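Chapter summary example.
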Amino acid sequence: MMNNKANTNSISIFEKIGYSLGDGAANIAWRGVATFLFIFYTDVFGIAPAAVGVLMLVARSSDGISDVFMGIVGDRTKSKYGKFRPWILWTAIPLGVILSLLFTAPDLSDTGKLIYAYTTYILFTLIYTANNIPYGALMAVMTGNDKERTSIGSFRMVGAFAGGMLVQGALLYLVAMFGNVNPDIKITPAGVDTYVVAVTSPNDVENANIKTENGIATFKWTDDLTALDDEPSTSKSFKMNAGEKYSFIVEGEDNLNAKSISLINQKKGYSYSMYLMSAFLTVFMIITFYSTKERVKPPKAQKSNLKKDIKDLIRNKPWLVLLGIGLLFNVYNSIKQGIVVIYFTHYIQDQLLAASYMIGLTLASIAGAMVTATLSKKFGKKQLFIYSLIFSGAVNSLLYFCSEVDIASIFALGIISEFSAAIFPTLFFVMLGDAADYSEYKNGRRATGLIYSAGSFATKFGGGIAGAIIGFVLTAYNYNGLDLDSIRGAVPGIIMLMSWVPAVIAVITAVLMLIYPLGDEKLSEISQELNRRRLQESNNNQEVIDEEMIQI
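The structure predicted for these 552 residues follows.
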């Protein structure tokens, strides 16, 4: 009877919060790398952009293989802590350390920098996989109650969005704080909204970056002969020698003064900031390990058989449907997120608003994740998934009718659409747990790690497909970010990508969801049958123990 209670009883708020901190930690790493590593490699470490692109492509090509391998390893792990929890503990410190090393820029030759970058980035992807695949699978074995699993999923996504907002919202402020140069700044008016800005530093700064606090004004070197690039831009990165003066023509902002100028040591700022984030990551992971428990275990009679596990997987209809859905909703979300900065920069013509917009979307995502469990009880997971997809896509398509001055409407539509979109990932990872239950129900076998890892492997391709779609559409409109005329000509394509292109993908995903076979009635049947089997297995084990005691 104890086994049955363990599988059906509710999970405490404390355990749900503890579990959610794990995804908060994972998103400190994942979103920190996705948002800031490219610019760190190019502007701070000094690696050519093309080389960075090849590096990331090579590393990601092996990522899917390592996902599936880690799922197989997790299913076969045996320890007193369970199958998946120990991996969270074992990788907590290594993940924090490798994230710190990613944002460390040692003084090396060009070849040495590439070797260092390849080594640390590939190690990061491997350690992240060893942590995140077991973490995802853990949710499916914390409880056998599918409704409780939905609640855990809501807590998880709140943690994920909060972790992402922490690193994306706070990192640049931390960079400015840790990398403060304390320069001497002199500003001389040179026309309407135009100034000559001269800066000197008391110390050598290998990777200085200058911009205005608002990030709107453009900088151009006063002496083109000393500049590596002479195109006006909102920031300039350069090497400073102590006591030497560096001058710029700055245009585009009123009433510029010394307090309006930000000059930071990027190398020190990024490294120290990410060291702090890595410490939070490690602590959060350790809390997750100690606050959670594994309750659902594979049938006692199940023998390790990889061939059988894979055969069961490809015959698992719920998982196959989720595979396609996971791919499509990641395409949907990645297009929406990938076009935001371009949309605000070249259509709204206010890049700074993009940051405020993304913060608004993140807050909406947290709210959407929080209400998912309640809405799921009312509509059921399958129906809620379909309703939220269609609603999010429909609202998002209305952005097509917004002009560049309709800022309030753009924010409102984007936030409403994102609130609904946040339901997708919350339900998706919960449904992978349902697919694991279905496999055990139908085949008498359970391979939770393999199901989660294979699902993760598929969804990672969504971001790549989204990038290809964005690139194809912008190329079709002859987009060139450095040419004003081509930017103006590409505005219709930018608006399409921001509005109805992702909406079409949302509708396709909703249609695919119609063939998902696990409705509420079927899930209830599966849950009751699995609980019956586990109770019977527990009673049989107790009878064997009693017989052995009698013989003794």
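To summarize the output: The mean pLDDT is 84.
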